[in-house]
Write a structure and sequence with these properties.
The chain is α+β, with helices and mostly antiparallel strands and about 70 residues long. Helices cover about 50% and strands about 15% of the residues. It contains 3 helices and 3 strands.
């Protein structure tokens, strides 16, 4: 999503459009620890590296599932 050199801090409200999810789904990812947030001066932010990590994790799960079903 973002290259190693480009690092960004997202507001949680920006993530639904970025990830093509609902705000409730993004909130669930945060609540369950799948997407970690940080607080800077009391303001919540999500590091772009966290978004990249989340996507990579879901890609790995999808690849494993595809491998299991291919005969």
């Amino acid at each position: 999503m973002v290259s190693q050199q480009e690092r960004r801090l997202y507001q949680p409200e920006e993530l639904p459009e970025l990830l093509q999810l609902t705000q409730e789904e993004v909130d669930h990812l945060i609540r369950t620890g799948q997407l970690l947030k940080i607080r800077i001066c009391g303001v919540e932010r999500i590091d772009s590296r966290e978004v990249d990590r989340l996507i990579a994790t879901y890609n790995q799960v999808a690849e494993r599932k595809n491998t299991l079903y291919v005969h």
